[in-house]
Amino acid sequence: MGAMTAVTLNVNGERFSRELDNRTTLLDLLREHAHLSGVKKGCDHGQCGACTVLLDGRRVNSCLLLAVAMDGTEITTIEGLSDGTTLHPLQRAFVDHDAFQCGFCTPGQICSAVGAIAEARAGWPSAVTAHDAPPGPVELTVPEVRERMSGNLCRCGAYVNIVSAVREVAR
Amino acid sequence: MTTTKPLLGAPTARLEAREKVTGTARYATDYPTDRTAYAWPVPATVVRGEITAIDATAALADPAVLAVLSHQNAPRLRETDDPFVTVLQSPRINHRGQYVALAVATSLEAARAAAEAIRVTYRCEPHDVVLTPDHPGLYKPDEVGVGMPADREHGDFDTTYANARVRIDVVYETPALHNHPMEPHSATALWDGDELTVYDSNQDSSGVQQALARLFGLAADKVHVVNEHVGGGFGSKGSARAPVVLAAMAARTVRRPVKLALPRNQLAATIGYRAPTIQRIRVGADAEGHIHALAHELVTQTATVGEFVEFAAVPTRTMYHAPHSRTTHRVTRLDVPAPSWMRAPGECPGMFALESAMDELALACGLDPVELRLRNEPTVEPDTGLPYSSRHLVECLREGARRFGWHDRDARIATSREGRFLIGSGVAASTYPAFVMPSHAEAHAAADGGYEVRVSASDIGTGARTVLAQIAAEALGVPLDSVRVRVGSSDLPPASVAGGSSGTASWGWPVHKACTELRRRLAECGHAVPEQGITVAADIAEELDDREDFARHAFGAQFAEVQVDPVTGETRVRRLLGVFAAGRILNPRTARSQFIGGMTMGLGMALLEGSTMDREFGDYAERDLASYHVPACADVPEIDVHWIDEEDPHLNPMGSKGIGEIGIVGTAAAIANAVHHATGVRLRALPIHPDALLTRLADQLGLA
Description:
heterodimer, A: alpha+beta, Ubiquitin-like (UB roll), DNA polymerase, domain 1, five-stranded mixed sheet, globular, B: alpha+beta, 3 domains, about 25% helix, iron (chain A), Aldehyde_Oxdr_Iron-Sulfur (chain A)
């Protein structure tokens, strides 16, 4: 039996407290202990982005974080994005643009897009932002969205529609 | 009870869209179960030989570990020749990565640690894992694909080729390619006495039900396979794979529900892959580009257990008029993982070779590559002599050329530049058969005025449940929202695999038939539906038997524009455009997504994807998504998709051809042809990586 540690965090606005195996990742905490199965495990190695959630408002690969290190944090998963039955604008846009097929990468794509839009608004440059761009919000052009969303793989090949969906919301 | 706008052909949004964007769509390991145990498989670390000892002492020392299964103690399965499901039955090792043990524990962490603590000792034997064009083990298989002959010969190829004015004799190679659906192969298994329920990630709930019933010696109605949502498959979930069998074995042993999701880096060795191919193409033509002799000879590999032949010479039997032709398949058994279906098996690598050779022929004849294809259009299918139910390749090529601006390009090789980039464009044709398979369906009218359609179809992201609802509502003459579609369970009327681009035809046909009959019955009784409702069952066995002989295929044309950086050797696709003729498009929204998705995977095949066999260690070196590169968002340009309005009365009541696979057919050739146009370098082995291109570019541009 692995060593256990008590962890308390806030998940989708609710307090979640549990004694957990120290080896547990944030992803496995969410899926197996908090029963938030919208978070997906595609690779468990930070290579595919399917497990993307928001950690204190920033996007992270939840498979790369140990749950014991998450004490006191605020986590938002795909389940926490919609307001009751009202979809988050990105969820709506993904439906409208048919930005998915099998849907397995979708929760991660949407959480990642929430993070990406916030990063651009906060003026974070990406690899394709012009070096002499003025400080301040970065416009999410097609190349910007493609670059910023490249941490989330989609094997069905819905990228073209994902880019349209993200840009619609970013405008 | 009538609708004003036709439902077939409407861009209806996916019925399950809301579930998928809110995270409530349940995949194989998303179902809540009590007292869940977790399983973690242990792969063999040798290539060939036998297990001599298994020491699970350290693994079992952790009280969280419930069991360690191996061939010594695992439940016995009924014998089968299917290498994917014959797990933990024998000490024999046929390939590296084959499962030799399974750790089962009360937590995922404990199961994983236990799997690592199991010590397996082997007696090793020499192995052979490398495919070569003259491998001594090459043989002619009895058949390829489903019942297709390995070889076909028409006329006198050798003499005609020898006397041809223009001759092309080239060898193309494609590497091993891996399906890598985003959801790894996964299952949750629960036993209730002798009754087995599995939530499994597969493309065929009926088929997996049959397989499990056989393996565990159960009646089929004691096995329930649920695949409500499936995170992609691309062929690799077309039949049962190890996880569902291992989970069922483990659940029976530990008497708890067991979840098993394969670690990503085990997929390359256990779930099938597209086998590497070596393809020699010879074309003999006259100076005007008319093909007189055409040979497509394929060499590929299979495993020592089972046999799967990547039937890449098959599309050459239907593409172009060629009075003297030869198509052959040779395969050798290596100590490698078993290959299997991957999106457009046969057509995808085969059309890379054929459509690249057509580009070479066009250049040799001084002809435009579009014009060359128009000149070799057959009137009947060359191999069978059958008329085509419909064939609009010419229209696709012309429409695509017009939309792409093909005729405005500078056809000269390696002359277009933008800044430091070399710019080029290429074209290739696409084809895929219009299959249909026997399936059953039920349509039910409830007393409250609602309708339910039941068919054990698998919606792996294609939009199947949406298009089936459209078919049902249109046949019933009722609004879409009054029809509930139930798919994704083997408890429903048995239906065929979501494979071979056959789903909509195979499932839609009995749905259409049942709904048409239900509508008639409702009219007959004046819509006085009794309390228990009215149910009509239908199958299409008779209709399939009565079909007239036609060659039924979808066709398409793909155009690519690339830029090549002569400094780094990097190729980037700037534009992709596809025009397809695939019968009636039943849902333009989901259809467009599938075409784009196929072309995106084709882009990956052209520029990124491929794995290399490690001759010493006997496995594929690129086993995860960091080393096996599938296209990412930044790799994919704007993709423009169009289709021809194609009326074909010889298909099915909907008039549809499948669209799931044709998108990946031809993309790689169009891109490779564009790279040649940009640079003058013809790379005949995929993928077109910067290192391969750079070496040749230096020679070509005189930079060496």
